[in-house]
Amino acid sequence: MFIVDTFNFIIYEPLYNGLVFVMWLLPWSDAGLAVIIFTVIVRLLLFPLSRKAVQTQMKMRAHEDELKQIKEDNKDDRQAQAQKMMAFYKEKGINPFSSFLLILIQLPIIIALYHIFLNAGLPDIDRSLLYFFVHAPETITVELFGLSFLSISGKSLVLAVTASVTSFFQIRYSLPPLKPKTGDKPNLKEDLARSMNMQMRYVFPVIVFFIAWSISGAIALYWTTSNLFTLGQELVVRREMRRKTAAEVAQKESESESEKEAAGVSTSEPAGDPTDDSADEPAAAPDTTNASKTSGDPSPAEAAPALNTRKKKKRRRKKNR
Fold first, then answer.
1. Contact at 8 Å (CB) between 29 and 23?
2. Which among 66, 83, 112, 297 is most buried, taking Cβ atoms within 10 Å?
């Protein structure tokens, strides 16, 4: 009894007053539209936790092969396997308990919403549950957008089909794709995972249809709105993760290019060998003999006889005159 009273006081009554308050704010008091708006508000409040859970799932899918390798390498030592997996989670920034925390917080809220839509008795309102600042609208319309086939007070085939179809697309987009079989031998674990995946994809939407059809249009409308919100949430978070991954890859590439450029500069300008003593040795004197030969000019020893011959010729010319 204490648990029920606590649940009603903390979760059920605030949500019920919130729904009535939204209906009171609407000019035409459309209960169906109020269910949509109120469901979106609740899901927005839970969005930070849902976002972390989706990010965790995507990170774990990205590192699925590495996790399998850790399990395979430590299959005989459970303690070492758990320690290495926790170290891996810490290194990659993965919180494996975020999904569990989301379920713990979201489950009582979902139960309260189901209870409200199932037992609210719209268009009647239980005024004993209303807070002093919440006023009940005078008239309430239970037909969404004024359409009779979209009534939330009774069964609605259209809303039940919509809830089933949106559940199919939401599950199909959220679950990882089916992997081909690894070998010809039967594998109980892989077969069980494939079976669960197939059942979630194709059997669960059918179950949703029968539940939504058998209970009320309010439950079907809540289910449809929640599925569409979850689908949009997946799209937003995945886009953020892709952008973040692309930015990290670009940063790593720029860092590697910078390292390569720095390595190229250092190799193109090698430092001198400190053990090389050739720089301290005196420079050798130039070889004038070889230089004169290579340049084509006669050496002093070769130029002396020619000079004496010229002098003799000049003396003879003077005597003849």
1. yes
2. 112
